[in-house]
Amino acid sequence: MIRFEHVTKRYADGTTAVDDLSFEVAKGELITLVGPSGCGKTTTMKMVNRLIEPTSGTIHLDGDDISAIDPVELRRRIGYVIQQVGLFPHKTVLDNTATVPHLLGWTRKKARARAAELLDLVGLAPSTYGDRYPDQLSGGQRQRVGVARALAADPPVLLMDEPFGAVDPVVREHLQNEFLRLQSTLHKTVLFVTHDIEEAVRLGDRIAVYGAGRIEQFDTPATVLGAPATPYTAEFVGADRGLKRLSVTPVETGDLEQPPVVRLDDPADRAAARLTADGAPWAVVLDADGAIHGWVSAATLSGSPEASAAGATAGADARSAAPGARTGASAPKGTTVRAHARRMDAWLPLGAPLKQAFSTMLQHDAGWIAVLDGERFLGVLTPGRLHAALRRSTTADAANIPRGEVALDRVPDA
Ligand SMILES: Nc1ncnc2c1ncn2[C@@H]1O[C@H](COP(=O)(O)OP(=O)(O)OP(=O)(O)O)[C@@H](O)[C@H]1O
């Protein structure tokens, strides 16, 4: 969709802002350009809509060399959002949003209807905000109007230059989430400039990490964090990149442990015998529909008085013995698992980031959490498995192979 070929920009004073840049962005991809101040991110972006002309090299948009396209016509195909927003102060929010459709010659009625639709899309009710003026909005609301205005003519490409840079971190995270939600339905091709690595990681399908005028690494967030290509990138993404990777590494089925599973209506003595045979200290309990109910310990099933919540609390691993576990004892006759089971609310969907898994474990003070596909129970994640998943994903990303192909024994200390 966007292709840079050996693009260089040298300003009149001799500054080389961008040096022999080549990269390609696929249709529907969101690329974040990240790097320190003055490294050439904005220059890169402004060359796409011809606010800046390259000194040499070519840029293609959807196969067309942009130097052959009239800049005004080109900019109709490209939405542009900047940090200062640049709303017209004397125009209402609705009229600001309708600016581009208006310029394109749409009727006033049609342009305003489209503007109202877009304000709704970015979470600003047109009935409340449409007639306000920009100075009657918060910073975050102004940014939303900026996004709505850029989307008004439905351009296939969006250029966003630190669009959420001027708002506080809480509002920024909110705007980022909203934008991701929008992008998941709109699938625009986006170049997004930021100097914030957290923002770049959170938003980008791929990240271009800039050094002075050059791209040092252009890859997925997980790979940039897990396998920085150069010492410069490693330093830029930060010493805590392992932590950051938790946000971009999803839970996969291969990460899960499979403790024994019993049903609520199973006879307790049979469940106890099963755990004894397996040498397992506890089992996951599912209801009749296969949905997660909770867990039951071998000790509880066998009527041990010291049966405790140990199976679900911190430190308990599906393979480790729960305190109080007693094997070989007989369960009370005539009861079902239901009478002994405990509820367990800590679960997360397959594909959720490891960070969410870790946070759920901490929140529930749990040594394991169930992983579900819809309602279906798939297995459990333990702290040990979470650590292994992180290490395997790092190896997998560095070697560019699926995580499932990295054997656990290739991961020391997992
Ligand atoms: N009109 C200009 N004339 C001369 N040098 C310029 C001009 N515009 C930008 N530069 C220089 O080009 C380099 C790249 O600037 P650019 O604005 O692309 O950086 P950036 O990565 O977007 O920085 P920031 O994050 O601070 O916005 C800088 O050294 C800057 O000083």
From TrEMBL:
Query: Which InterPro entries did the record assign?
Result: AAA+_ATPase, ABC_transporter-like_ATP-bd, ABC_transporter-like_CS, CBS_dom_sf, Gly-betaine_transp_ATP-bd, P-loop_NTPase
Residue ranges annotated for the ABC transporter domain, each copy included:
2-237
The record's annotation in Pfam families points to: ABC_tran (PF00005)
The record's region (Disordered) falls at 306-335
Query: What keywords are assigned to this protein?
Result: ATP-binding, Nucleotide-binding, Repeat, Transport
Has UniProt tagged this entry with the keyword GTP-binding? Answer: no
Q: PANTHER family recorded for this chain?
A: OSMOPROTECTANT IMPORT ATP-BINDING PROTEIN OSMV
Family according to the record: Belongs to the ABC transporter superfamily.
**Protein name in the entry:** Betaine/proline/choline family ABC transporter ATP-binding protein
What species is given as this protein's source? Streptomyces halobius
